[in-house]
């Protein structure tokens, strides 16, 4: 039986049997099952898994920026094509393509200049990622001491990442800072130096996805490396 509200009712019975598998005289129990949204077309949630956009941007001389980009299309069978990569450079200009060359600004960009990548897959689902390549971290590039090499693993990471820095002399525990894309301090800790190597475990849980910088300050100098939070 169908109703005007789009619900179907199915009537049936259940056979009740005793141990000898013989039905009782009253062994039929009527029941109804209701199914809502009957006749409503199925609409798949194509964008339940949107694409993922990611890029790293760095100054390329005075008034220019260079990017290294990557993206995934999203769910199975989705695709990304050339025009689906849209760049907004923060100065009113735009471009397309997965691997743009250096972008030159007509006016020297300020620290708050944002570069945004928006990707759209063949299913019409979009995602965006923004960086501030002229922010505090880019304006004051760190100087690492000779032989210093800061390594972060794993990256990308959804939870914890380990920072390892070698080539150090004997010294008290060093300051380790986690900064966001604007150069703002997010978390900080201190890590000991053992046999010339500093090791610090950083907890990224609870932080928004995106690009972060880890800055380690030692007697030999400052070292910075980037980590992606998934």
Distance between the termini: 50 Å
Instruction: Report the CATH topology name of the largest domain.
Output: Immunoglobulin-like
CATH superfamily of the largest domain: Immunoglobulins
Number of domains in the coordinates?
A: 3
Question: If classified by CATH, what would the architecture of the largest domain be?
Answer: Sandwich
Strand content is over 45%
Nearest-angstrom radius of gyration?
29 Å
Counted by DSSP, the helix tally is 1
Low-pLDDT ranges: 20-31, 139-146
The CATH C-level name of the largest domain is Mainly Beta
Widest β-sheet, arrangement of strands? 6-5-8-9
Class by helix and strand content? Answer: mainly beta
Q: Tell me, briefly, the overall form.
A: flat
Biggest beta sheet attributes:
4 strands, antiparallel
SSE order in H/E notation?
EEEEEEEEEHEEEEEEEE
In helices, the fraction of residues equals: under 10%
Overall mean confidence score, pLDDT = 77
| DSSP, total strands | 17
Summarize the structure in words:
The structure is a single chain. This protein has 230 residues and is mostly beta strands. The protein has three domains: 1-43, no CATH class; 46-137, Immunoglobulin-like; 142-229, Sandwich (Immunoglobulin-like). The chain is 2% helix and 49% strand. It has one helix spanning 136-139, and strands spanning 8-17, 23-35, 52-59, 64-72, 85-88, 94-96, 103-104, 115-120, 126-131, 149-153, 160-166, 174-179, 185-191, 193-194, 197-203, 210-218, 221-229. Strands 6-5-8-9 form a four-stranded antiparallel β-sheet, with no helix packed on it. Strands 10-11-15-14 form a four-stranded antiparallel β-sheet, with no helix packed on it. Strand 3 (52-59) and strand 4 form a beta hairpin. It is flat.
